[in-house]
Design goal:
single chain; about 300 residues; alpha/beta; TIM Barrel; 8-stranded parallel beta barrel; globular; binds 1,3-dihydroxyacetonephosphate; Triosephosphate isomerase; Triosephosphate_isomerase_AS
Length: about 300
């Protein structure tokens, strides 16, 4: 029943998103109206998600790439560049380079691990615990990346528990959600995203330490970036899901960032969308000039807000 309603939400949201581009302010009313229908059965709260007021955030996910020499070069190039002081920039090197990168990057940048174990230390061969990350002064961790969901079999429940544990021991978390092309095409986009989000709620006590990354699987590493309207439509929906659970004020402060084939040519347009609070960048984060340009796309957002 709820799943069916979530599917019905898609066309309404889509129509509204298209209108939002030319008629600022109406998308949230439309999304809000659509979500109120959902809320009547899925939640006792009746809320309308306000647009974001959150600080811009750019993450660079280096994935399983790099040699000692290439990582050193990338760090040098990032250090030679500059990023706006009013945004958060966080890079996630492979574990083996994490400490080296943390110690050699200048202060404008923070580091994240790409993953951690779901529990505390113990007999978990090959894993790194959240406690170890805290102990080695790593502030952030990525959880729920689609590559870990699909290649390592991580379920939403597992991702939720891992996210909760990482937060409980003091990390900040970039929690990823996103649908496959099949899920989008078969009409289960909203259901998929909602169930990934619902798995986080029982585990997260402090949403100020969570960044939600919307990464459609079909856009990751494919060069097929979501259009600004497609991304905005989903981000507004995710903010409504957050608002239904946490209230509008908290939801407006949660960063919702977009990932999937972001580069220096498409970031500015994406950054103008009211619910896109930044990016999680894969391939383009390995090229310092592109990554720095993506960080500077916050200027497009400021222009829109002015
Ligand atoms: O998975 C991603 C970031 O976590 C996105 O990767 P690409 O930017 O290479 O598509």
């Amino acid at each position: 029943m709820i799943a069916a309603q979530l599917r019905n939400f898609a066309p309404a949201a889509s129509k509204c998103a298209a209108r939002r581009v030319t008629l600022p302010g109406q998308l949230h009313q439309c999304i809000g109206a659509a979500s109120r229908n959902l809320a009547s059965s899925s939640s006792p709260r009746d809320v309308r998600a306000e647009a974001s007021n959150a600080r811009f955030f750019v993450g660079g996910n280096w994935k399983c790439n790099g040699t000692h020499a290439s990582v050193e070069k990338l760090v040098q190039e990032l250090n030679a560049g500059s990023v706006p002081s009013d945004i958060d920039v966080v890079v996630a090197p492979p574990f083996i380079f994490l400490d080296m990168v943390r110690l050699s990057l200048k202060n404008e940048y923070q580091v994240a691990a790409q993953n951690c174990w779901v529990k505390s230390d113990g007999a978990f061969t090959g894993e790194i615990s959240a406690e170890m990350l805290v102990d080695t002064l790593v502030p952030w961790v990525i959880t729920g990346h689609s590559e870990r969901r699909s290649l390592c079999g991580e379920s939403s429940k597992f991702v939720g528990e891992k996210t909760g544990h990482a937060l409980d021991v003091g990390l900040k978390v970039i929690a990823c959600v996103g649908e496959t092309l099949d899920q989008r095409n078969s009409g289960s986009l909203w259901y998929t995203l909602d169930s990934q989000m619902q798995a986080l709620f029982p585990n997260v006590k402090d949403w100020s330490r969570v960044v939600v990354a919307y990464e459609p699987v079909w856009a990751i590493g494919t060069g097929q970036v979501a259009t600004p309207e497609q991304a905005q439509e989903v981000h507004a929906y995710l903010r409504t899901v957050l608002a239904n659970k946490l209230g509008e004020e908290t939801a407006a402060g949660v960063r919702i960032i977009y990932g999937g084939s972001v580069n220096d040519g498409n970031c500015n347009e994406l950054a103008t969308m009211p619910d896109i609070d930044g990016f999680l960048v894969g391939g383009a984060s390995l090229k310092a000039p592109s990554f720095l340009q993506i960080c500077n796309s916050v200027a497009s957002r400021r222009t829109m807000a002015a």
